[in-house]
Amino acid sequence: MKDHIEYANGKAKTVCVTTVLVALGVPFDGFKYTWNGKKNIWPEILRRAGYAVRSRASRLPRVCTVGKSRAIIAAMDDAPGTMYAVTVRTVAGSHLMLLNDKGQTVVDTAPRHRDARRIAKISAIIPN
Fold it and tell me: Mean pLDDT throughout 27-51?
């Protein structure tokens, strides 16, 4: 997917969220929207696909960058194989990326050499 798919009703299928969902095994045709015009609906899509989605925001400092979070994620006591969906704020809005349980980037459609983007939200993605 090269660009966002935007619909007349305000809903959209965004590149970064779609790439993360497909990397987690959700088929590309298994969902039509990732944004419903008011909020991201990727957690609901993952729950339908058999994942548990749990916030881990309380385990990070109030102001935390992606680079600083890597060691914190590696020290979390979630089950092995847990993935972490990290939402960062950008000038254009927000961006979703996927990190593994060691804090390494698995999916990032806008990679950085030195990642100082501030984390807005982090969720553990746990297979059921």
Answer: 91
